[in-house]
Specification:
The chain is of the alpha+beta class. The chain has helices at about 1-20, 35-40, 50-55, 60-80; strands at about 90, 95-105, 105-115, 130-135, 135-140, 145-155, 160-170, 175-185, 190-195, 200, 205, 210-225, 230-245, 250-265. The longest helix is centred in the N-terminal third of the chain and has 20 residues, at about 1-20.
């Protein structure tokens, strides 16, 4: 009954939207040809399956156009908050945090952060019920570590994501940035994406309280809007590990992780 009602509502919503715009569907497979039509349909209280059905009936260019619009909104949302990483400490000593933001129109921004020793296995974990909340400043033992920041914008099953792994070394000399590893993904047809080689802008942090190491990467997206116009956008993801304090007896350094996502063009 619910499935039949959803189909009726979807059909009526599309019909009303097209009539008001003075347009008609080009085909049954691509009923939604306009971003405003897509927003109107996605604004309802829908299940994941219903959202997926809508995306399947939407022109790829329309999905890409809305996704990139929401990616710009995600940058604005993140710009309004402090981007220090308040990660929870997991039983294995690694830190992890995940946050979600509702961007409206069925779109979600997800931010995942993780810091761990190089010998810690596994990718982004689920937060353990045994995890404890920590502050931005954390004591870490000497050795090789990695800090990962990932930002994703999702419409149903379609996701544009950018991530950067910041590998660094803690020692009696302070902090050294070793290298960065980046990844970018966008599975929808009709769009292309790429990433630059991560750059180390500050390789060494040797002054307690005032220095940090930084790595950043630029991500590029190209897509066609529903009107046929080719569009380009570039974003930069920066990760930083700050040198807060050192305990040479215990062989530990207190670090502060931070990150930020900006639009370049």
């Amino acid at each position: 009954m619910k499935k039949k009602l959803f189909s009726v509502i979807l059909t009526l919503s599309l019909a009303m939207s097209m009539m008001s715009a003075g347009t008609f569907a080009a085909s049954e497979q691509n009923d939604i040809q306009d971003v405003e039509q897509l927003k109107a349909v996605l604004s309802g209280d829908l299940t994941e399956a219903e959202q997926a059905q809508i995306i399947e009936r939407t022109d790829d260019a329309v999905v890409n156009e809305l996704l990139m619009e929401k990616l710009d909104e995600a940058v604005a949302v993140l710009d309004e908050r402090e981007n220090y990483a308040d990660m929870k400490v997991l039983p294995d000593g690694s830190g992890y945090d995940i946050q979600s933001y509702d961007l409206g129109d069925g779109c979600i921004l997800t931010v995942e952060l993780r810091d761990a020793a190089e010998n810690t296995l596994g990718s982004m974990p689920a937060v353990s019920p045994m995890a404890t909340t920590t502050q931005p400043d954390e004591w870490k033992e000497y050795g090789n570590r990695y800090f990962t920041a990932k930002a994703s914008v999702t419409i149903s099953s379609v996701t544009a994501s950018m991530s950067l792994i910041h590998r660094y070394l803690l020692s009696a000399d302070g902090i050294e940035a070793k290298k960065g590893e980046a990844d970018v993904d966008w599975p929808k047809k009709g769009g292309t994406y790429s990433k630059s080689t991560p750059q180390i802008s500050d390789r060494y942090a040797k002054t307690v309280g005032t220095s940090d190491v930084n790595i950043d990467c630029t991500y590029s997206f190209t897509w066609k809007s529903s009107n046929g116009t080719t569009n380009n956008a570039k974003y930069n993801l920066n990760t930083s590990v700050g040198y807060v304090a050192i305990n040479k007896t215990a062989k530990k350094i207190k670090v502060r992780h931070s990150w930020n996502l900006t639009k370049v063009s």
